[in-house]
Amino acid sequence: QSAITDLKHALAANRVFPVYQPIVDLGDGRVVAAEALLRLHDDNGRLLSAADVAPAIIDPVLSHKVSNLMLERVFAEGADLLALYGPDCRIGINSSEADLRKGECLDQITRLAKNGNLAPRNLIVEVTETMLLTDDSGAICDCLTTLEAMGCKIALDDFGTGFSSLTHLRNFPIHTVKIDREFVSSIDEDHQARLIIQAIVQMARSLGLSVVAEGVENESQFNFLKSSGCSHAQGFFFAKPSLIPELTAMATQSR
Ligand code: G
Ligand code: G
Ligand code: MN
Ligand code: NA
């Protein structure tokens, strides 16, 4: 069965939902943010992730539905998320190019924020470098600038894997770079990966950006990132992407 069918069926049957993966401050070890990640159950009850339905998420109609649904769910669960990680925590949303090009997410965030659970200053909008490379990058930049003015932070996802033009960091309102897990997973065996990470961290720091290392799986990666001055990290070493009750149980245990 194709990714498109899986996603269509799951949307129709209300089997699409977010899980959340904590983002930790490497200075004090506290969870300061969490990324919302799409999950769905297929017709056989199997749990699929966004990567499993990647071709469907870029379909214009489905991407619109997915973005709406994820934002609605994140706001609906906003009070629980703030209770868990504090009133100043932020929730990361993966945006699609269409969301930003048409600026539709602006109206939706404004409307949803009226529920009072979650404010725009509790959001991080994640964009990828390819989204900034389109012909419409002017419209995307305008949308990001408005999101920034509303209080959202903007994170550049998968940094280092795409074109990584430093110009993006100047021309778009970017607050955070997320170092792709490809580099992080090579820390233990690849000297070059370590040098690239340190170069990204130093550049980001001098530009006043925060840096999230993605895909941290073990203590030696954690130690390397911390000693390299990386500000934040995310990965299985801290927590898998999970439902709120599971995250609440984890937070209670570690307290
Ligand atoms: O969770 P998983 O490893 O399957 O995620 C793979 C990729 O899918 C992530 O890197 C992320 O960029 C993307 N993704 C996850 N959730 C969403 C979502 O809600 N919307 C969009 N557009 N992409 C998502
Ligand atoms: O590109 P996107 O950054 O948003 O990537 C997030 C995806 O990476 C999620 O789907 C999540 O399941 C996956 N992920 C998160 N932490 C780890 C990790 O420590 N190791 C691996 N292999 N994958 C991870
Ligand atoms: Mn992401
Ligand atoms: Na990534």
UniProtKB/TrEMBL annotation:
EAL domain: which residues? 1-255
Task: State what protein this is by name.
Answer: EAL domain-containing protein
Please tell me the species this chain comes from: Erythrobacter crassostreae
Q: What is the lineage of its organism?
A: Bacteria, Pseudomonadati, Pseudomonadota, Alphaproteobacteria, Sphingomonadales
Interval of the full protein contained in this chain: 467 to 721 of 724
